[in-house]
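Protocol step 4 of 5: obtain the predicted structure for the target chain.
Materials: sequence only (see below). No template structures provided, no constraints applied. The aim of this step is simply to have a reference model before the mutagenesis design in step 5. Sequence pasted as it appears in the construct record:
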Amino acid sequence: MLYITSKHLEHFAKGMGGRLVQLHLSAGRGFGEHERCFDETLESIGLHCPNLESFRYGVLVDWNEDRYEAAVTDYGIISLIQGCKKLKVCIPY
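Step 4 output (structure tokens):
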């Protein structure tokens, strides 16, 4: 498991570019502001990862309950879907 910031994730997506096919992220309770995924991050992933087929993102709130991070809105998800034409899976977990 890696602990990265939203900016690190953007740089990783840019570096991987078309080679990135799956991206599954989770954040635990107590994560700081910079460790969260934001709409701008999803937009960057959409721009630089056209071959992404599977994207999952969730925040572990409780061991029995997951939810989307509040920082991710419709704008971010739409940007990701529009940029990643091969995306088959885009779900929270």
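Step 4 remarks: Helices lie at 6-16, 39-48, 74-83. The chain is about 35% helix and 25% strand.
Proceed to step 5.
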